[in-house]
Amino acid sequence: MSPGTGWETAPEMPGSSREEDGAASKNKPDNTAFTQQRLPAWQPFLSAGYVLPAFFLLGLIFIAIGLGLYFTSNNIIEFELDYTGNSPNSSCHHCTRNNTTNCKCTIHFKVDKVLPGPVFMYYKLSNFYQNHRKYGVSRDDDQLNGDLDYLKVPSEYCFPFRLDSQGRPIAPCGAIADSLFNDSFVVYKINSSGVSKVSLNGKGISWWSDYNVKFNNPKSDNGTLEQTFQGTVKPNNWPRPAYELATNPENNGFINEDFIVWMRTAALPTFRKLYRRIDDGMQPGNYSVEISYNYPVLSFNGQKRITFSTISWMGGRNAFLGIAYLVCGSACIVTGIVMFIVYIKYQGQHVFKEE
Asked: What are the residues whose beta carbons fall under 8 Å from the beta carbon of 185, sequence distance 6 or more?
């Protein structure tokens, strides 16, 4: 016991200090410039002589890019044809009546100047919310990828479009597939000698990754595609099953490109999806579109349009990117001017204080 304290001082264990020194030296980083943070470094000095020219240079670059994108977008030729039929004067108005099936209507239009190929033909829907969460997840990606197990036992996400009233699996299942757009279009060129059909190319209209990776037909060791789908039923609103979507085996079933395009849901309630390409372009003259009117939209106050559009090196017509560059460039120029005025105004005062 130590006198006056009541505590006994513990004797120092032999070798403890040497062990601690050895552990510390073992964990010590190597004496190099990198591990000891002695590498040479450069730090920019943000003076007015560097910052102001940088703002003006970036502003000019952004404005130049914005002008290029904006005028390129405006040079793209694009026009729309509304065929909703909600107006009594519309040629498709008779197709909106109740219980009208297999209805066809024709819209005439005129092309004033040459549209160089390829001309892209879209269908456009308004007030259709494909971005609704329950709608967007109502699908079975394993079934669409050709998995035989999920073909007969669809995912629960497809409810209530998973099984029919008799308990048979629906293929393809889900709300997205059930609401497949099924209007069809035929374009004619009206000449003085008669009417000629415009060739519409439907190959390659879907994303490569969708057609070659995400969507596959179910395969069985023996039997046709129709036999593979035996035991399943078509979606409620489809006129025919998936294995009869087309006669071409490379565009049938789950790999039908119109079906694949529809299954890639849109982010906004007004959207358009690629329908066909006119590879040879369109010459000036009178045209008509024969429409097989099957898809109802008036029940949700929607609209249907056909869009013809040329393209450029930047894609389709969209002025947003050009306007965004112009706004950012203008903001850089204005900021540079304000900073330059402030610098000139207070530079003399700073020099006077130092003196």
From this structure: 121, 123, 200, 275, 276, 289, 290, 291, 292, 306
Entry pTM: 0.78
In single-letter form, the type of residue at position 2 comes to S
d(CA 30, CA 60): 49
249: alpha, beta or left? (left if phi > 0; alpha if psi -120 to 50):
alpha
Q: How far is CA 99 from CA 86, 103, 284, in A?
A: 16, 10, 38
* pLDDT tens digits for range 260-272: 999 999 999 999 9
Give me the amino acid identity at 100.
T
Closest C-alpha among 209, 185, 201, 200 to residue 260: 209
Segment 200-221, tens digit of pLDDT = 999 999 999 999 999 999 987 6
Type of residue numbered 135: Y
Mean pLDDT of the chain: 88
Q: Of 174, 220, 181, which Cα lies nearest the Cα of 306? A: 181
Token representation of residue 290: 């024969």
